[in-house]
Amino acid sequence: MIDDLKYIHNTDKSDALGVAEKQPSQLLEKFQININKIEANNIVLAGMGGSALAAAITSSWPGHDTPFEIIRGYSVPNYVNQKTLFIASSYSGNTEETLAALQEAEKKQAQIAVIASGGQLVEIASQKGYPLAKLPGSLQPRYAVFYALKALITLLNSAELINNHSALEDLEKATDFVNTSVKSWLPTVPTKNNLAKQIAKEVIGKSAVIYAGPLLGPAAYKWKISFNENAKLVAWCNQFPEFNHNEFIGWSKSQPISPMQSLIFDLILKAPELTRDLKCLKGCFLVSGRHP
Fold first, then answer.
1. Are 158 and 200 found together in one domain?
2. 162 and 197 share a domain?
3. Where are the alpha helices (DSSP H) in the chain?
4. How many structural domains compose the chain?
């Protein structure tokens, strides 16, 4: 079925696969942001779902030298003040939690910047002269993560709040790698050579559980979002080594994996520090149809 191109075309009415194939081009987008060097003691980004995901990625790469916190809710931390750079991130520009957090940040006289494609946030930024990274529109927020990532790194680079001065160049160079990777996952590639299709067959009709190490934690969260919103499946994710201190017990032999759950381990970095994590799982459950 998943090798039947006619079936795929008739089922994928919104061309989600076509949008996914074009994801690498987002890393080449240029953003002109009217922002100068900012003196900030900390950075707070407010966003929900996919609009917060780009910020989570920056915590893994390129990392932050200035304390950085992501707010997924209506309120901002008590420490927010004039020395805070507050970034309101919402693809639609109308996310109620982000708009509420922005109002609080304004009351605390934080320095404000906006990342959005339109809506109320763009209107507010235009009216009040806030630095704005305007994202290309007409996409579902979950499909615009690379746009948001490029915009956020551009903003922080322009504000001189990122010490990795080659980050933008490195991000654009990554386009070739992403393009090459995507080619092996296209609908035209048969299942026997297509890891994406193999995982789809394993997970179909089940709840997906995705685990990753700290560096790839945001990628695991992206998988969760995609299962939730694209496949309309319940999914969970978690990270090592926190997994070892509680969740591991839930997957013990006394409580084996359910036929209604499918575990995805492919995001884990095979780094030396994770060797113990992998060994402790042997014999407890299958991972994507394979023993870890």
1. no
2. no
3. 5-11, 16-21, 50-60, 96-107, 119-128, 145-158, 167-183, 195-203, 217-229, 247-250, 275-279
4. 2
Residue 214's pLDDT is: 87
Based on the fold, state whether residues 40 and 166 are members of the same structural domain.
yes
- Is residue 241 reached through a cis peptide bond, with omega within 30 degrees of 0 on the bond before it? yes
Which is it for the CA torsion 12, 18, 19, 21, positive or negative?
positive
125 shares its domain with 213:
no
Q: What is the pLDDT of residues 165-179, one digit of tens each?
A: 899 999 999 999 999
Q: For residue 75, what are the contacts with CB-CB under 8 A and spacing of at least 6?
A: 100, 101, 104
Per-residue pLDDT of 222-258, as tens digits, reads 999 999 998 888 899 998 889 888 888 877 765 555 5
47/69 Cα distance (integer angstroms): 11
Question: 259 lies in which domain range?
Answer: 191-279
pLDDT > 90: percent of the chain: 61
CA 165 – CA 65 distance, rounded (Å): 13
Two tokens, residue 85: 């750079």
Q: Indicate whether 143 and 206 sit together in one domain.
A: no
Positions in the chain short of pLDDT 50: 266-292
Taking the mean position of all CA atoms in its chain, how far away is CA 150?
Answer: 12
